[in-house]
Write a structure and sequence with these properties.
The radius of gyration is 20 Å and the shape is globular. It has eleven helices and eight strands. The protein has helices spanning 10-18, 29-35, 39-49, 63-74, 88-99, 112-120, 130-135, 140-153, 169-178, 187-194, 197-213, and strands at 2-6, 24-26, 54-57, 80-85, 104-109, 125-128, 160-163, 182-185. Helix 5 links the parallel strand 4 (80-85) and strand 5 (104-109). The protein has an eight-stranded parallel barrel with strand order 1-2-3-4-5-6-7-8, surrounded by seven helices. 53% of the residues lie in helices and 17% in strands. It binds SN-glycerol-3-phosphate.
């Protein structure tokens, strides 16, 4: 399973990359706004840190402007994946950019039917938002299961399921059990994955016993 980090905070991406935990990055307009930085500048910097795909999202809603923005964004670095919303214009832009050899991440997916359309439009990734579905009392993971089932019926679909809006470790574990290809995780969720109270307690007692020996390895 590939781990993407869902942030536009360069320091976070650098730290997690050093730990070998980042296969790619996803951003969206809200995350860019939160960073307080110029989009082109921050995307270029992220692309230098991570060799994997870096999703940069268009902000226009009409076909022509969205396509022009997508072409601009992919020109920032060779590993930019253009992110488009799941709208009619977004799907048309997806098809155009995919035909030009650009990886497209179709975002804001909330139904299996939408995911089917994204695959037909040549998306490299479909981003279903599990947390936001949970927020409205629908089990977001059921959508992941449905999309994977549908995609597996048609081996010619090359679209990868990129589970987004992950809020906690259980989302990740459930997505991995279902076999989703990618999960995009906020940095705090990645840190939650690492931590376990028994690990902390076990390490504390190993080190206490070790100190009693008076030895040092080096
Ligand atoms: O990857 C999409 C993600 O950023 C949305 O997450 O928590 O705002 O629903 P959230």
């Amino acid at each position: 399973m590939k781990f993407f980090v869902d942030t536009a905070e360069v320091a976070e991406i650098r730290a997690l990359s050093e730990a070998g935990l980042v296969d790619g990055v996803t951003t969206n307009p809200s995350l860019i706004a939160k960073s307080g930085r110029k989009m082109a500048e921050v995307i270029a910097e992220i692309c230098e840190i991570t060799p994997g795909p870096v999703s940069a999202e268009v902000t226009a809603t009409d076909f022509d402007t969205m396509l022009a923005e997508g072409r601009f964004l992919r020109g920032i670095a060779r590993n930019v994946a253009v992110k488009v919303p799941l709208t009619e214009a977004g799907l048309s832009v997806c098809r155009s950019l995919a035909d030009e050899g650009t990886k497209v991440n179709v975002t804001l997916c909330f139904s299996a039917a939408q995911a089917l359309l994204a695959a037909k439009a040549g998306a490299a990734y479909i981003s279903p938002f599990v947390g936001r579905l949970d927020d409205i009392a629908y089990d977001g993971m059921l959508l992941i299961a449905d999309i994977l089932k549908i995609y597996r019926n048609y081996s010619y679909f090359k679209t990868e399921v990129l589970v987004a809006s992950i809020r906690h470790p259980v989302h990740l574990v459930e997505a991995a059990k279902l076999g989703a290809e990618v999960a995009t995780l906020p940095p705090n969720v990645i840190r939650q994955l690492i931590k376990h109270p028994l690990t902390d307690r076990g390490l504390e007692s190993f080190l206490a016993d070790w100190r009693k020996t008076g030895q040092s390895i080096l």
